[in-house]
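Lecture notes, structural biology module. Today: joint structure prediction for complexes of two components.
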Amino acid sequence: MAEIQEKGGKGGKGKPKKQSTKIDMTPMVDLGFLLLTFFILTTTFAKPQTMEINMPVKAKNQEEQSELKASNALTLLLGANDKIYWYAGLPDEPTAPGVQVTDYSAGGLRKILLDRKSNPDLVVLIKPMDTDKETGRYKNMVDVLDEMNITDTRKYAIVDVDPRDEKLVEDAKAK
Amino acid sequence: MPKVKPKRARPSLDMTPMVDLAFLLVTFFMLISKFAPEEVVVVDTPSSISDIKLQESDILTITVDKNGRIFYGVEGQHTKRELIDKMAEKYNVSFTEAEKAKFSNMPSFGVPIASLKSLLNMSDDQMKKVNQPGIPADSLNNELGDWLMQTRYSNPKVRIAIKGDNDADVPTIKKVIKTLQDRKVNRFNLITDMENKPTI
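The predicted structure, tokenised, for the full assembly:
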């Protein structure tokens, strides 16, 4: 293997020369490693990770939709610049202390969700803002859904932004 | 006194096991590798702790890039072949056999159906360079919805995955989700990168 053959020094004698049965395999091995490198680099092993979401079936009329109790509601408004405006209760009168701003860090959204973990009926309403003034990013949506998984929050829904919510955000920003 | 000549060992070692292993690995990688399909757009997906893997086959990918363009891709040559026939019929566009064959080999595309024919007539190099405007998904002209429905007719097992860029804007994503919901698709997947689960 990988040896350079040596010619026997003594020639011309009657004895037939014993030819070595070794072949130089260096080029083959080179090629082998080249292919190995190529395949290692081009293979894609990991299939993409996914998150499954189930959206609710659209209710045909208003009566089919269930009312949400103010004490169980938590609304997250996903705004621009990775900010979350959030409040507990209903948009007509958010329970004190009203609309607050937080972020996607562990001490922000996750803490809010964990603080409310004691309430098994908690429903988190995720509202990605898509108005002209405030537009969230897709990353924010996924991050929030991810936080739901991390904190094991079971009930959540992606909802459209209400005009009342927009006003609340405007007020909170003006403050 | 004759010098004690140390016996010169030839500096060669037996590399057979190493080479055996190398070829074993080559064979392994050759058999296992499935080349990543060439992407029309580069999409940087957000990360999540979810560790569900996407199913092996029959995946319909709706890609949303950072400029809000929508691209459509479905796996399976057979499905795509049927799909283009159905779409051609619905939109009254005719495609030649060569165009259909090319379509069934394309991983994804992002043009309205009216310009699909000219896209299919481009060479591969041109196709890479051309700026695809994305598939219309507005409520008035919702081609995305039609592609979706026709794909589901062609292959009912198809699983829908949304692959969005970090910076894709919410209105576009909402438009896509609304399109899905309007067609009674309430279960779909979001493609994300892996992330370690934080301890709480």
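Point to remember: Residues 59 and 152 of chain A are 26 Å apart (CA to CA).
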